[in-house]
Amino acid sequence: MQKINKAGVCAPLGFLASAVNADVKGKGKEKNDMCLIYSETPFKMAGVFTKNTFKAAPVRHAIEALKINKEYQAVLVNSGNANACTGQQGIDACAELTSAVADALDIDHNKVLMSSTGTIGVQLPVERMKKHIDTLVDELDDGNSDLFAEAILTTDTFPKQCGVLVETKNGAYVVAGAAKGAGMIAPNMATMLCYITTDAVVSDKNLQTVLETAVNGSFNSITVDNDMSTNDTVFLMANGMSGIIPNQNELQEAVNLVTLELAKAIVKDGEGATKFITVNVKGADSDDDAKKCAFLIANSPLVKTMFHGEDPNWGRLLACVGASQVKADESQTDLYFEDLLYVKNGLIIDEKMESKAAEIMKQAEISITLDLNMGKGEAKVYTCDLSREYIAINADYRS
Amino acid sequence: MQKINKAGVCAPLGFLASAVNADVKGKGKEKNDMCLIYSETPFKMAGVFTKNTFKAAPVRHAIEALKINKEYQAVLVNSGNANACTGQQGIDACAELTSAVADALDIDHNKVLMSSTGTIGVQLPVERMKKHIDTLVDELDDGNSDLFAEAILTTDTFPKQCGVLVETKNGAYVVAGAAKGAGMIAPNMATMLCYITTDAVVSDKNLQTVLETAVNGSFNSITVDNDMSTNDTVFLMANGMSGIIPNQNELQEAVNLVTLELAKAIVKDGEGATKFITVNVKGADSDDDAKKCAFLIANSPLVKTMFHGEDPNWGRLLACVGASQVKADESQTDLYFEDLLYVKNGLIIDEKMESKAAEIMKQAEISITLDLNMGKGEAKVYTCDLSREYIAINADYRS
Hints:
2 copies of one chain form a homodimer. By secondary structure, chain A is an alpha+beta fold. Chain A contains 12 helices and 15 strands. In chain A, the strands form 2 sheets. In chain A, strands 1, 2, 3, 4, 5, 6, 7, 8 and 9 form a 9-stranded mixed beta sheet that branches. The longest helix of chain A has 21 residues, at 248-268. In chain A, 61% of the residues are buried. Mean pLDDT of chain A is 90; it is low at 184-190. Chains A and B meet through helix 9, helix 10, strand 13 and helix 12 of A and helix 9, helix 10, strand 14 and helix 12 of B.
C-alpha cells in the first residue's frame, strides 16, 4: 500500500470532477462553491450520516435514496448553504437540483445524490445554481481533484485530500478522498463532508461495512468543539473500473488510512487551532469508559486553553478524568506527556519535571496518555487547542 | 421576604468572619487568600459537593465528617490552591489546618471544616498558612462579610453576596451568603464555593433537604464552560440565634432566592463573559429532556460565540436541539428571542424579522425560548457568551 502524492477524488480510474462559482451565498463571492463528482460507469455507494435529529434536506434525501438504490453515477455538492432547517422547500430544492444534474448528464434521476454545507436556515438559491449545472457537466475532467477539494470548503484554511495505491497480484486499485470541516467537529462527525472514491470492485454490502468501520476509527474519534451538525456525510463510491476484486482486509486498511489522514487534517485545520493533540486513555475498565474519558478531556475548554497556553497544568487533566465519572482512582492514575511519565499514582513525580513537560507543550503536535490502571480498555481521540481565533471565526461567521 | 442591601455571611446573628493574606501561592500576592467563618454558638451544617470522582482533600474530609457529625462552629477557606490531586499529604494538610483553627478558637477539633479553591496538584503551604491562624481568630468580626467574600475569589472579577430578611409573626431571621466561581462552572457546580448562613432554628435533616432543593434550581442550572471541578462545595449553616423556627416553605424560598442570585452572579462573572443568557426549553417530552436540550445549547461553543458576535443565527440553535437527540421534530419546533416569535414550525417566519432579532442580540441580558411542542417538560438554564477573553484568562492562568 503506497500513498499517492496529492491524490484526490479523481485518482481512481473513471472518476471525473468539476467546480464552479455559483454564488450560492448571493454575495458575489469569488470562491467556487458548487462541484460535481461523476463516474464514467455507475458506482456502488455507501454512506454514513450525522446522528443529529434535525438532518439537513440533502441528508434526508440521501438516507431515503440509499434505502432503495445503492447504485449512483454522480454527486453534487455545494458550500455556503447547508440546506438545513429549510422544511419541505429544502427537500424540493434538493430533488430539483439532482434532477437537473441527471438531465444534464443524460442519466436517470435516481442516479444522483447531493450534499450541502454552510449556513443553516436559508433556502438554496435553486435557480441561480441551476444556471451553472451545464458548465459543471461540460468541465468534468479527471484532473479536477484539487478544484473539487477546494469548492467544498467553508471556514477551512486548506483543502484536505489523500489517496493510496494498493498493488495486488492481479493489478492495482486506488482509494482516494477529499474532506472538509473545521468547526462543529465532534463525535458523529459534525459539519464534516467526505467523499471517497475507489476503482476496486466491491459489493454494496461490503462497501457499507468497510465505511462504517473506517469512520469509527477516524471521523468519530476527532473533536474540535463538540458540536454536531445537521449535515455530516461520508460517501464511499466504488466503480469497479480497475477490475480488481480486493481482499476485504486490505481494502479496509486502505479506507482506514484515507479516512484517518483526512480526519487528522480536519483537526489540524480546527478553527483557530495552533496545536494537534492526541489524547490516549488506556487501562480503562472498558473501551467505552476510555472513549468517554478521552472525549471529555479532548472537549474540555480548560484543557484546550491549557494546551494553547503551553502550560503543563496536569491537575486539569486529572480533574477531567474524575469529571468523566468512569471507573478510576486518583491514587492509581498515571499521566504521560509523550513518553515522559509525569504523574504517577495521582501525584507529580517531581516538580522539576514541570520544565521538561513545559518543553513538550511547545511542540506543534503533542500526545498525552492517561493510564487508569483499571483494566484493558483503551481509546485514542484527536483534538486541537482553543484559541482566540476560534472565537473570532465563530463570532464573526456569517456577518 | 426582603432583600438586604450588601448582606453577606455575617448578616445573620452570631456569625463573624475574618480574612488575611497568607501568601498561599508563595508569590507574595497582595490579595487576601485565607478566611474564616465562625459562629458564637455551634451551627447545624448541610453540604452539597462536586460529583467529580477525584474530589479534593477538603471535600473528602467534609463528606466524611458530615456522615458522623452535623454540628460545627467554624469553616476555614483558602483560595490560590485547590488541595486537589495531592494524595494523603493533602488530607493530612486539611486535618492539620482545621485542628490548628480549632485550637486557636479553643473548640473541639471536629467542629471545623475547610474548603479550598485554586490550582490543582500543588501541596498546601501548611506552615505558612498556620502562622496566620491566630490573626484570623483575633480579627473575627460581624462586620467582615465583604472581606470574606473577597478572600474566596480566584479569577472572579467581583465578589458575590446576597441576603434576605424574613419577617414572621414571631420575629425575623436572616439568610445570607457569599459565593465564588467564574470558570469551570457547569452542572454539578464546578469550581464553585458557596457559604450560606442563617440564624433561623432548623434541624440538620431539614437543612440538608432545603439546601439540595435550592442547589438544583440554581447552581445545578448554570454553565460557563461545562467543566466540573474537584472542589465544588455549598455549605448551609444554621445557628438558631434568632430563636425563630421558620415555616419550611418560607425558608426554602429564602434559600432559593439567595442561591439563585449567587448562581446568576457567577454566570455574569463567567470568565470573559459579556452577556448573560437565559435558555428556556419548554414543550419537551419530559423535564429531563428539556434540561438535556437546554444544557446542550448553553454549552455549545458555536451558540456561545454567536451570542458574543450578536448574530441571530437561529439555525445553530435548532441544530443544537437536534444534536441533543431529545424527542423533537424540526417541523414542530418554535423559537422565541425574548417575546419575539422568530422561528415557527422550524422555519423563520419572515427574513425581515432578523433585524428585530439582531436588536435583541445587542442586549446585555438575553432570554431565548425553544418550544418543542412535544409535551409539558421544561427547564431553564443560565449561561454566558464565549469571548476571546475566556481564552486569554485560561491560557494564561497559573503562569
